[in-house]
Amino acid sequence: MGKISWGRLFRRGVAVCLATLALWALLLSAGAGAVAGELRRLSSSERFVTAVLRAELGDSEGGLPFWQRLAVGQSALLEANPGGKKEEPAQTSPLPMAQPAPDQDDVTEERLPQHAGTGDIVERTLVPATDEGYVTGGGLYLYNRTNLKADLSKAVRAKPDISLSPAQEGPQILILHTHATEAYTPDGGDTYLPSDNSRTLDEGQNMLRVGDEMERVFTEMGLNVIHDRSLYDYPKYAGAYSRSGAGVKEYLERYPTVKLVLDVHRDALVGGDGTVYKVVTDIDGVKTAQVMLVVGSGEGHPNWEKNLTLAAKLQKNLDTLYPTLARPMTLRQSVYNQDLAPGSLLVEVGSHGNTLQEALAGARAFARCAGAAFLALAEE
Questions:
Q1: What is the rounded end-to-end Cα distance, in angstroms, of the chain?
Q2: Which pTM does this prediction carry?
Q3: pLDDT tens column, 46-69
Q4: Do the beta carbons of residue 328 and residue 142 sit within 8 Å?
Q5: DSSP labels for 270-301?
Q6: Are 208 and 303 in contact (CB under 8 A)?
């Protein structure tokens, strides 16, 4: 015989008493016909029914209320949330789309929201739970924010339009940061003097530090790297892509051996109520920021499919080695200077809700996967 649940037995007793008292009161005050009508009214009362159900079932434990679960369910990525903690606080508003922040195309001075305290940051592991809303092919997912037709199956089968040689002299990879002053949420010893909202000139705390980590891993794997440390977004944010584009052109002219151009950023995910979301996964017991590959297109970039082919190659490697490290790829309308070389990609490492240490862990994992893919290309 199972163990008696005294709490449930007590609630059921209360529910029965409430129902009996209500019926007794009705019988005293009205005839049978009136009683029937009153019972119908009570049965249609949401408050009465909810009260009885709560007495019977008790408050739900370990799950969100129905309407909040419905809101979360509008985003397949957020609904999936593998590895999420059951004790996670209930959401008070719909979560933001689990996709990149709106394009920041230097039309106006972009003002990002201030980073929140750690108590206001919600963790999410963003992986697709359904094909809905995505272009799929070859086991990959692509969030298409354009009117272009993307063929992922073709991209997976094709060979990237770049040529690497294992014995090649000269730099092979260029790492830069169009928005180098982007920073993460201060945590522990990782603090900084902000130059703007979630931005800093401290090279040990902004995107330059993340680029350094990638450069270190690539170099250890035998790849030759140039790390452009220019602050293209300071002192003025607007026009950063134009300035970084000029920098990329200069490097490609000076070093024709460069075949891969990685523009490394971090994303920003903020809910309508100001809640900050950070994207994390667990790799070998280490909390690690997720990464995302962004492919540009636009009228000035007719060869965007070549960049998509490279992205598909990298994504496949990421998904194989670390299945939850990468968020789905994204195709955007802006060019992001990717028309300058067929081996160009924008890499988002975490979001501004992540800590620097989480971002560095994500940078290392990405570089190991990407480096392996680049070396495989050199051997083909």
A1: 66
A2: 0.72
A3: 444 334 334 333 343 333 333 333
A4: yes
A5: B-TTS-EEEEEEEETTEEEE-EEEEE---TT-
A6: no
Cα separation, 289 vs 324, in Å, equals 10
Spatial CB neighbours of 289, under 8 Å, sequence gap ≥ 6: 278, 279, 280, 349, 350, 351, 354, 358, 359, 361, 362
**Kind plus residue range of the DSSP H or E element containing 221:** none
Q: Which residues of the chain have pLDDT under 50?
A: 1-5, 8-9, 16, 23-24, 26-28, 30, 32, 35-36, 38-118
Provide φ and ψ at 293, rounded to 5°.
-95, 130
Pick the closest to residue 334 from 148, 105, 99, 143 (CA basis): 105
Beta bridge partners of 144: 331
- DSSP bridge partners of 173: 225, 260
C-alpha pair distances (Å), 230 with each of 154, 181, 215, 339: 36, 10, 15, 20
Buried b (16+ CB within 10 A) or exposed e, 2-24: eeeeeeeeebeeebeeeeeeeee
CA separation for the pair 91, 187 (Å, rounded)? 24
In the chain, the amino acid numbered 307 is N
